[in-house]
Design brief:
Strands 9, 10, 11, 12, 13, 14, 15, 16 and 17 form a 9-stranded antiparallel sheet that branches. This protein has an 8-stranded antiparallel barrel with strand order 1-2-3-4-5-6-7-8. By secondary structure, the chain is an alpha+beta fold. The N and C termini lie far apart (about 45 Å). It has 3 helices and 17 strands.
Length: about 280
C-alpha cells in the first residue's frame, strides 16, 4: 500500500499505471468471484425426487433467497395418503471454492446441527453429499435436485419470528473451523458480546478474557484491537483457534438464534448460537 506522501511524489504517468493495474486486478478478482457464484440469478428454486430406502421417494424442494435465507420442504412419499411433510428455514452459503452449497437450519431439540451439504454439479444441478468435506453418497441412485425456474413462488408461511440481534447478544461458539466446540469441567464456556453503545467487544476465549473494538456494516463485521487477559489455561489450542477466527472475521450472517462468522470470501469461520440465559 502506497502512503499519501509517496503517492503525491509520483508522476502522472506512474499514477495512471498504478491505477490501471489496480483496476485490472479488481476486475479479475470480481470476475473470479462471480464465476464461482454459479447460482444466479436469485431467487433460485430446485426440485427433485430423491431415492429412499423405506419409501417410494423423497420429494425435495429448495428455495434460495437473495438475503442468504432458504426454505426447504421434504415429503416422504408412501403408499396411499401417508406422506410426511417437513419444513425448514435457515441460512445458506457457497463454499469459497464455489463447489458446495450448505443449508443450515440451526439445531434440533437435542442440540444437534440440522444442515445438509450439496455439490454444485453445474449451475442447475445440486447433488446431496454425505458431509461438508465433499464426500458424495456412494450410490448410482438419484440424489440430485435440479433448478426449475418455472415453479411458482412457494407459500412457506412465516418462519420463526425471533431473530437474535448481532449486538448485545451473548454468542457462544458451537463449531470453529468445522470442529464442534464443547466446554469441559476445566474450561469455561467461550463467548463474545458486542456492545452496540460503546462498539466494544468483550468475551472469554477459553481461559483468557478478551476485550477489543468492532466495526459493523450491513453484512460486514471487523473485530480489532483484541487484548487478552492471560490466565492459566489447559486448552491453549482451543483458545488460539477462537482468537484466530475473531481476527479473520470480515462478515456475518444471523438467522434465528444462530450467527455465522465469515472470512473475506464469505467462507464460514465459526458457527455460534445465542445463549443469553
Amino acid at each position: 500500500m502506497i502512503g499519501v506522501v509517496a503517492w503525491r511524489t509520483l508522476s502522472r504517468t506512474a499514477k495512471v499505471a498504478l491505477l490501471s493495474a489496480y483496476l485490472s486486478a479488481s476486475a479479475a478478482w470480481s470476475a473470479t468471484a462471480l464465476a464461482k457464484s454459479s447460482i444466479c440469478p436469485l431467487p433460485a428454486r430446485f426440485f427433485g425426487v430423491l431415492s429412499c430406502a423405506d419409501c417410494i421417494g423423497i420429494r425435495q424442494r429448495i428455495d434460495l433467497l437473495p438475503n442468504s435465507k432458504f426454505a426447504q420442504t421434504v415429503e416422504r412419499l408412501r403408499e396411499g395418503d401417508s406422506q410426511q411433510d417437513e419444513l425448514s428455514y435457515g441460512i445458506w452459503w457457497i463454499s469459497a471454492d464455489g463447489g458446495t452449497l450448505t443449508l443450515d437450519a440451526g439445531s434440533d431439540a437435542n442440540g444437534q446441527d440440522v444442515r445438509s451439504v450439496w455439490r454444485l454439479s453445474d449451475a442447475r444441478t445440486l447433488r446431496m453429499l454425505v458431509d461438508e468435506r465433499g464426500d458424495s453418497i456412494a450410490s448410482n441412485l438419484d440424489f440430485e435436485v435440479r433448478r426449475v425456474d418455472s415453479l411458482p413462488a412457494a407459500r412457506f408461511g412465516q418462519p420463526p419470528e425471533f431473530q437474535a440481534p448481532l449486538a448485545n447478544t451473548r454468542w457462544v461458539p458451537r463449531r470453529i473451523a468445522g470442529r464442534s466446540v464443547t466446554a469441559t469441567a476445566r474450561q469455561q464456556e467461550q463467548w463474545i458480546v458486542l456492545d452496540q453503545r460503546t462498539r466494544r467487544v468483550t468475551g472469554l476465549a477459553g481461559c483468557c478474557e478478551i476485550t477489543g473494538i468492532y466495526d459493523v456494516g450491513l453484512r460486514t463485521l471487523r473485530i480489532r484491537g483484541l487484548v487478552p487477559i492471560r490466565r492459566t489455561c489447559p486448552d491453549l489450542e482451543g483458545e488460539a483457534a477462537f482468537l484466530k477466527v475473531l481476527h479473520r472475521t470480515w462478515g456475518y450472517r444471523v438467522a434465528g438464534r444462530r450467527l455465522e462468522l465469515l472470512d473475506r470470501r464469505d467462507a464460514v469461520l465459526a458457527d455460534l448460537e445465542e445463549r443469553n440465559q
